[in-house]
Amino acid sequence: RKNYIMAPGPTPVPADILLAGAKETIHHRTPQFLEIMKETLESAKYLFQTNSKIYTFVSSGTGAMEAAVTNLMNPGEKAIVVVAGKFGERWKEICDSYGIQVVEIAVEWGNAVSPEQIENVMKQHPDARVIFTTHSETSTGTVIDLKSIAQLTKDTDHVLVTDEVSGLLAEPLKMDEWGVDVVVSGSQKGIMMPPGLAFMALSEKAWKLVEKNQCPKYYFDLRYYDKNYPDNPWTPAVNMIYMLNQSIKMIKEEGIENVWERHRILGEATRNAMRALNLELFSKRPGNVVTAVKVPESIDGKKLVKIIRDKYGVTIAGGQGHLSGKIFRVAHLGYVSMFDTITAISALEFTLSELGYKIELGTGVRAAMETLKREG
Ligand code: PMP
């Protein structure tokens, strides 16, 4: 049976990227590898739309989140943290672990923080200089207005940090132009690689905090990564760097604007399919990474996710935390084409109808195809 990964990470990996990794592992302290590292990290700036250095860690995305907290914050200091889902919660949990005082902006899950909310909290807590946000909150399928939020911090001494683990390449991001200070991401989503690499980019303003930081840490201390850059302080994931190099080549070939646009169109097609099937979107500000959908009253959400995967080979995601069983999430992230989206919607229709939900087969597929024809 053929399998389709339509979950928001890990996402499908193109054969050319897998093959790029299937090469002999060379020693990392050699001129040959250093040359590859240099070229790869230089070209990775394109993904973030920045001129700042890109640091890589051998970890999942959470490692880069922890690196952001421990390199920017000292225990006892105040940080503003937006919590609107599981990954906002993660920022808070990491801060809590290091004794950082969290000023939480609690947003109802499925909603997006507004720039005004952030502005108010910035005024109330002038001693909180670092703001942690999640561009694409994967647990709720929601995107925030990062560009407007960056306007608030751009010409101030505030440092804006954003989790782009799922957002990178699916949601437009212009790190330097918008004035976003710190971006963290991971390999297994928009970058179309397997899990295992994490990324971080920092503005000069953010780097000033890193230089004088005193939070206890070792593996993720950015000063080690910067010292002999682009040489890695520890053993880098050599074969994953080969894969990253190939991924960036493919993204450059498609053009980042086209990559963003492809995600937007697939998101729009998926949302229209759900509406046509009389399904309600969970998010009030849906993004182009993943579409979160409320499970109809009459249906068992966990059963739906299981049937669509085990019987039809389409892996979608269920709800996380208190949303378990209440929503399902269909991704359109990374190496995904319109036919993957159409396939996922048709599998969803088969599954819904098997579970007794009344639909005319093809209703969602038709709405998606019409959107794709109009937009594409
Ligand atoms: N942040 C967001 C927005 C995510 O989607 C994820 C992964 N689902 C993470 C952080 C955590 O990344 P990882 O699982 O790679 O540690």
Automatic annotation (TrEMBL):
This is Aminotransferase class V. The modification N6-(pyridoxal phosphate)lysine is found at K189. Its cofactor is pyridoxal 5'-phosphate. One of its GO terms (molecular function) is L-serine-pyruvate transaminase activity. It comes from Pseudothermotoga lettingae (strain ATCC BAA-301 / DSM 14385 / NBRC 107922 / TMO) (Thermotoga lettingae). One of its GO terms (biological process) is glycine biosynthetic process, by transamination of glyoxylate. Keywords: Aminotransferase, Pyridoxal phosphate, Transferase. Belongs to the class-V pyridoxal-phosphate-dependent aminotransferase family. Pfam families: Aminotran_5. Substrate binds at R329.
